[in-house]
Design brief:
2 domains, 5-stranded mixed β-sheet, 13% helix
């Protein structure tokens, strides 16, 4: 890994310049895929506000972390959370670990100019690209078009993306003039949730109470499948309850609900780890949604090849 100190300083403190960049929202099943495309300019960083007119934004996924390389190009530097999560060796300038669970593009709602965050109607994301050599012709630079991330919503909504100019907007490596086109990212209708839990389902009232989370409609969620995805490979075998489900569970473990804690909405996809779909704890110590009962459900089918698909939903992300 190359020396990062100077490059990081350049990325985090570059004066924004605007150029011709399209922001694109593509509905994809029950998620929204956020993409970008330019007229040939290289984008160094994005600061975007994303809002929905109904429900909340529940989760963010499919983003990369770390340096952009020829093998893995993209925007894996998150200025809003860099200092909170990433440690740079003062002698070598190296970063030992990028894959830290709390290191995401979503800005803290307490940051100046940032929206409310996951679990609310709006989030602010910040994503930058760090690569070497740092010029536009670098083989490690991100392409002029691609996917930034995916979002999960709590219910059908119209989604809008705008540059957050207070936090930098769209920063380019070499541009004299710019236009950010959000025509394809304004009022985009995301999915119908008519195939969620039916009103006759035993968990329907609780599902509505917690915001109709999409993950509760995954057919194996109540057995520990927090992300609805199959893991593994043909050689070692496939399973629906694995390491990623354990990661989501660990982040949500005993996170106290208000007034004693920030609540499950502050944890990325945290409600998805509430496999028992109920509250634990008590009024004295506080309540939390992810506890021992949920751990037992996850471990029952952890890395098992077969998991019952009887949780009441039929959706896949």
């Amino acid at each position: 890994m190359k020396k990062l100190s100077l490059a990081l300083a350049t990325l985090l403190w570059t004066t924004p310049a605007w150029a011709a960049v399209r922001i694109i929202v593509e509905p994809s099943g029950k998620t929204a895929t956020i993409k970008y495309a330019t007229d040939g300019e290289k984008v160094r960083a994005f600061a975007l506000d994303i809002t929905v007119d109904k429900g909340v934004i529940q989760g963010i996924s499919d983003f990369m972390r770390g340096e952009s390389t020829k093998e893995k190009p993209g925007y894996g530097i998150f200025p809003a959370n860099f200092a909170r999560c990433i440690r740079v060796d003062p002698d070598t300038g190296d970063v030992a670990k990028w894959d830290i669970s709390g290191y995401t593009p979503v800005a803290d709602p307490c940051d100046p100019g940032a929206l409310g965050g996951l679990g609310t109607k709006g989030i602010t994301i910040e994503m930058g690209a760090l690569y070497y050599p740092p010029d536009d012709n670098s083989p490690n630079a991100p392409p002029t078009q691609g996917t930034l991330f995916k979002l999960t919503l709590s219910e059908p909504a119209k989604l809008t993306v705008k540059p957050n100019q207070l936090r930098g907007g769209v920063v380019l490596t070499n541009a004299e003039s710019a236009v950010v086109n959000t025509t394809e990212a304004t009022g985009i209708a995301i999915a119908s949730f008519s195939d969620g839990l039916p009103p006759t389902h035993k968990d329907y009232a609780e599902w509505v109470k917690v915001g109709r989370p999409l993950c509760w409609t995954f057919p194996r969620q109540c057995h520990g499948d927090a992300d609805g995805l199959k893991e593994g490979d043909a050689k070692s075998g496939f399973h629906f309850v694995g390491m990623n489900d354990l990661r989501i569970f660990t982040q949500a473990w005993k996170v106290l609900e208000p007034p004693f804690g920030p609540g499950i909405a502050s944890v990325e996809n945290g409600i998805c780890a509430d496999f028992a779909r109920d509250l634990d704890g008590n009024a004295t110590t506080g309540f939390y949604r992810v506890g021992v009962t949920d751990l037992n459900r996850l471990m029952e089918y952890y890395l098992k090849p077969n998991v019952p698909g009887d949780c009441g939903g039929s959706l896949q992300p």
